[in-house]
Every structure is written in C-alpha cells, then in structure tokens.
Amino acid sequence: MKKKWTMLISIIVVFTMLAACGESAINSSSEAEADNNSKKKSGGGGETIKVGAILPFSGVYASLGKDLSDGMKLYFESVNWEAEGKKIELIEEDTEADPQVSLRRVRKLMDQDNIDILTGAVSTAVAYAIRNDVDSNKLPYLVSHAGGNDLTRSKRSDYIWRSSFSSWQIGHSMGEWAYKNVGKKMYVAAADYAFGREVSAAFKEAYTAAGGEIVGEVYPPLGNNDYASYLTSMRGVKADGVYAFFAGSDAVRFVQQYEQYGLKDKFPLVGSGWLVAEDLRQTIDPAAAGTFASTFWDYNLNTKENKEFVKAYEKAYNRRPTIESLEGYDAARIISEAVTKLGGDVSDPEKVIEAISNVSFTSPRGPIEFDKDTHHVIQNMYITETKLVDGKTENEVIHTIETVKDPGK
Predict the structure, then answer these.
(1) Hey, which of 45, 82, 140, 220 has its CA 20 to 30 A from 274?
(2) Can you tell me the distance from the alpha carbon of 409 to that of 407, in angstroms, rounded to the nearest whole number?
(3) How many independent structural domains does the chain possess?
(4) Residue-range definition of the domain harbouring residue 194
C-alpha cells in the first residue's frame, strides 16, 4: 500500500512539472509570437520599404487611379525602385471608389502586407472613411489626390499629410483674378456634391472679398446629362461671366452645351482645371476655347522640370500625362526623399511623418513644401486660358499665383 501511495505521488509530481513546463512553454511561445507580431507590424526593419496605394482601378474613377499609379511607377523606376539601399515595393489595392471597400483594403494592407507608408485615395469620402484607422494605427499616410478641406482641418491627423490640393486652393485662387480680369458680377454653376460645393464656396469667398457680386447660383446633380433648363435660365442673367465647377463627363457635357446654347459669346466661362482637363479637351473641342481655369499644374507649363517630366512620361506610356499623373509622380518622390532622410529606417512612424514634413523640392508643377501647421502642400496656382491652335485646343498659362497656402480652418 505504501509503495502505491509513493508511486501515485511521484506521478502527480511529474504531471505537475510537465504542466508547469507546458504552461511556461506556451507563455514563452505567446510572448515570442506577440513580440514578432509587434515587430512585424512596425515594419521598416527589413530590406524592403513597403508602400501601400489605395486607388480606384475600376468604376467611374478608374482612369484617375491608373494615371496616379503610372506617375508613381515612373518616379520609382527613375530611382531603380530603391532608396538608401532599400528596395521599394508598391502594393496597390482597388478602392472601387467605395468607402467601405477602401477600409477593408487598408486594413488588409496594414494587417497582412505590413506596409510602412500609405498613399493614394481619389475620393474624399474614401479618405474620410479610412482616417480613423490610419490615425489609431499611427500609419504614415500621404494623400495624393483627395481634396476635401476637412482632411487637413477638422479631420487633421498627426499621421496624415497631403501633397495634392484642397478644394479651397482650387476655388479661392480664381476669385481675385476673375474680379480683376473678367468682371464685377459673376454667376456660379457647380455640380451638387461636396467637392463642387467646397470649390465654388472658396471661389465666392475670394471673389466677394475682392469686391465682386454673385448674382445667381445653380447646382445641377452630379452625373447630369442635360443642362438645358439651367443654361436657359442663365440667358437673362446680368453677369460679366460664369464660374463653373464640373469634372469628367459632367465637364464635357456642360462646356459643350454652354456653347450650343449661345452662352459662350455672352459670358466668359471660368472654372477649375478639371473643366478643361488634359484628357477631356479632345472630346470637348472646340467648345473649350476661351475658357479660363485655375490649376496647380498644366501640361504646357514652361519649366525645365515639367518638360523633363512630360518627355519621360510620354516615352514610358505613349500618351500625355494628366494632373493625376503628376500627383502620383510627386507622391512617389516625396516618399523616396523621406526614406532617404531617414537613412532607410522607417520603423518609427513619428520620424517618418517628420521626414515627410521636411521634404521640399522643385516639382514639374513648381516649388512645393509642406505647411507644418496644416500638413498641407504649399504650391503655386496657375490661371490658364484655353486657346484654339490648328483646330485643336491647348491650355496656356497666363498668370501665376505663388506659394498658395490652405488656411487650415
């Protein structure tokens, strides 16, 4: 009996020791796994810099996504896809221009691909949708297109910087010029969505501050096909010109119908660069001739940097670059130069955003730098006039507004 008790006690002791060892092993394994996951999430420790890009490659904005992507690839190719001896890997995800799809794509880029830096977003709604996840995960994010004002205002984040434009920059830059060069009374027509409203509001702010009067406004729905009723009502307006904000197919239809209804000869048409965008004018021609527009880049901008960019882009893709191509190109350069400033170590997001904030150079669009208070790009704005040359239209830069800063409020 005594032997049995001794054996039983021995067995219990052995099992207790095994359990303790097992628990220790499990705890050690869990701690190691957590440590590895933490290291994996932080990124930057390997030989590859992972850049995630969220862009629309399907749907209504697919062409913009492709141009942004091609612009990025052109720059990365020019530096052999390297920065400070580290390989640059570009991981692209299709947002489908859908905020919820975009949020899933960003989480995938963070959790599965372990990206170091995020860029992209064409739609402001997409940028707003991912803002909180980017902020809470301390993911450095360089916005390369989405222009909604609040992204660098009420929704500003330490980890979000914008290299493209704001709605305010686009609209405000035309206000004073239009008052001095077009007239003292202006009618406003803009697509009825957030961006159209923001841009036209910025124009009105600057135009009225200069002394101008807004004599009427109309906001057709986004994606409208027939502007007849709106254009007919404009005929009796006592104005010196019409400020219009439309983009894409809306711009094509509005500008063409504006001429068809006889308004072009009555009221000079002014607007944003998207009204007479590089990829639209062949479709709009010749109705676009005579339009004045504000933009931060144009194909015909006569600088050494722009000529080199245009030449390289056309050689690579056998087509003219667009403003989105330029945005992608500059975003890639900003990322590359930030990595270089860090000696290739992007493991600390605080240092990454600091490096981004200190990047400045002369871009094909002109000198650019960041406003450290607003996290927004400081850049030139240009007024262009669309002219008819040998039966085709070309934009000509006729005025430069230097170092335009978004007010950040």
Answers:
(1) 140
(2) 6
(3) 2
(4) 168-295+383-404
